[in-house]
Design goal:
Elements: H1 3-8, E1 11-16, H2 20-32, E2 37-42, H3 45-53, E3 66-69, H4 78-87, E4 96-100, H5 105-113, E5 118-121, H6 126-143
Parallel strand pairs: 1-2, 1-3, 3-4, 4-5
Helix pairs in contact: 2-6, 3-4
Amino acid sequence: MTDRLALSRPAEILLVEDNDDDVELMRIGFAKSRLLVNLHRVRNGEDCMEFLRKTGAFANVPSPDLVLLDINMPKMDGREVLAEIVADAKLQHLPIVVMTTSAAEPDILAAYKLRCNSYIVKPIDFKQFVTVIQALGDYWFTVVVLPSPA
């Protein structure tokens, strides 16, 4: 992790994912990494925005260092979440990694136009999925310098 984060606390990651199997693969990937993370999960975009804004049931949650966002979700999809984050001055600083099954060029372009920081197509293979999660954690928490939480 960045020295500042590594010395002070675990990384806080918000996982916005409706698929329980993908959540479990991410938990395994982070557990196999050498990184200390707290993985928080919400199932849809509406809950994501409540978590980020610390409203309702999420009033006392920590501010995430990184958001892992699925695109295709119920209630409010990832594109809508990205649009709300970009429009909210209090949330614009958050690094957002889109993790989805879609490799469609229009989805990729739309996510980047909405200012996601990275776009990852979820691997189907278990080993590769875990490797991607470990690489993602290494990159965001050992290479990148993140802003302090709000």
